[in-house]
Each structure stands twice: as structure tokens, then as C-alpha cells.
Task: inverse folding
């Protein structure tokens, strides 16, 4: 099995990379490759598409930190993203946000979309991972305003915000490559007091769960 482990920045998965190197998980029939895409959906789409076109992994695992839109998932929590939505592709007028589906620029049930969502169809794969499965929203600008945050919650029912998740889902759905997305919460969305952020704890928890997932796939029969 060839596994692609990807993240926006090196620091988010450094502990896992060190673990894999130490354990020498580069066996004859099971290899792990790492791709650092850079932040944001544009960087991620380009890097993933280029890699998958050239190498065709059996599975892509994206891991990173994100913000929480729900009090049930506080800083330090780790989740798996079941479906993603692009939360900033559209227009804001009169305090209301209309996305590309509202504007009739795309059909909400035309592949790869399903009810506006980019849904991971690999249920058996996700069932193997013992983490809460939630809905994510991806935007290119970190949300800071309470009104915008409420829009994302009410319009999409999103729980976790990131800058790269929808890109993973979009590319892998288009390329028919199985994928998993893990996110650890570093802060509540809209919280600008950085003393309340738990970045290092989120990264530590992310890598703890990521190592469990990697170990499971690397040692399967």
C-alpha cells in the first residue's frame, strides 16, 4: 500500500514523520510519502493534483489544525471530517452570504457535490477510525467576526473550520482516490485572544491520533 500523508505546514505532522522514520515504516509493499502543500485551498489543490497524477497513492491522509464552531469540540479535540463545504465562494450582500449554488453558478447535486457538500464516500474506511465524524467548512480567510461565524453555522451546519479540507475532498473525489481528513482544534473560531489558543496541545493530540491511524493502515494484512 502506498500512503500519502499531507499537511499544510511541516510542523503540524512533524512528530508523526519522526515516528515513521524511527519505526522504519518503508517496507517492500507498504510505503509512506509526505507532501507539504502550503496553506489555503489553491496551494492544496495544485500540490495534491500534481502528486496524485504522477504517483497515484492508494490513500491520502490529510492532517492539520483548525478552529471549532461548536462548544462540544473545544481546543484539544481531534475529529475526522465526514464532509466539507466551501464557505467563501460566492458573494455577501446586505449581511447575507450567497454561495455559488444560490447564485446558480453550480448545481448542488452534480458530482463531486452532494447537497452542496463534498462528502467522503468511503464509509468502511472511516468506520475504522475511532474519532467523531463531523462537517467541516473551508475558507481562505480565517473567520474573526461573530456575524460571519453565525452564517457558517446556520447556512452549513459546520463544526470545524480549516483552510485546506475542501481542497482535499474535491481533488480526491475527482481523482477517485480514497482519503481521510483529521483535524485537531487549536481555538474557537472568532477568538482573537491568542493566550486562549492551544496550538501546541492541538498539534500533540493530532499527532497522537495520526500515529494510531498510520499504524493501523501500515500494518494491515
Result:
Amino acid at each position: 500500500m502506498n500512503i500519502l500523508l499531507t499537511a499544510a505546514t511541516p510542523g503540524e505532522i512533524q512528530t508523526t514523520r519522526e515516528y515513521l522514520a524511527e519505526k522504519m515504516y518503508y517496507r517492500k509493499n507498504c510505503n509512506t510519502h509526505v507532501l507539504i502543500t502550503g496553506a489555503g485551498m489553491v496551494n492544496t489543490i495544485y500540490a495534491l493534483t500534481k502528486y496524485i497524477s504522477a504517483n497515484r497513492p492508494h490513500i491520502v491522509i490529510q492532517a492539520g489544525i483548525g478552529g471549532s464552531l461548536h462548544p462540544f469540540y473545544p481546543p484539544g479535540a481531534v475529529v475526522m471530517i465526514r464532509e466539507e463545504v466551501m464557505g467563501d465562494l460566492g458573494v455577501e450582500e446586505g449581511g447575507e452570504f450567497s454561495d455559488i449554488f444560490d447564485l446558480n453558478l453550480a448545481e448542488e447535486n452534480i458530482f463531486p457535490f452532494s447537497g452542496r457538500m463534498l462528502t467522503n464516500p468511503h464509509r468502511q474506511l472511516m468506520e475504522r477510525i475511532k474519532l467523531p465524524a463531523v462537517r467541516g467548512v473551508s475558507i481562505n480567510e480565517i473567520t474573526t467576526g461573530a456575524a460571519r461565524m453565525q452564517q457558517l453555522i446556520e447556512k452549513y451546519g459546520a463544526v470545524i473550520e480549516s483552510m485546506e479540507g475542501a481542497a482535499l475532498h474535491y481533488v480526491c473525489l475527482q481523482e477517485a482516490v480514497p482519503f481521510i481528513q483529521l483535524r485537531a482544534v487549536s481555538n474557537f473560531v472568532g477568538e482573537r485572544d491568542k493566550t486562549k489558543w492551544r496550538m501546541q496541545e492541538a498539534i500533540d493530540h493530532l499527532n497522537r491520533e495520526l500515529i494510531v491511524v498510520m499504524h493501523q493502515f501500515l500494518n494491515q494484512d
The radius of gyration is 17 Å. The helical segments are 14-23, 41-55, 123-127, 146-156, 165-175, 199-218.
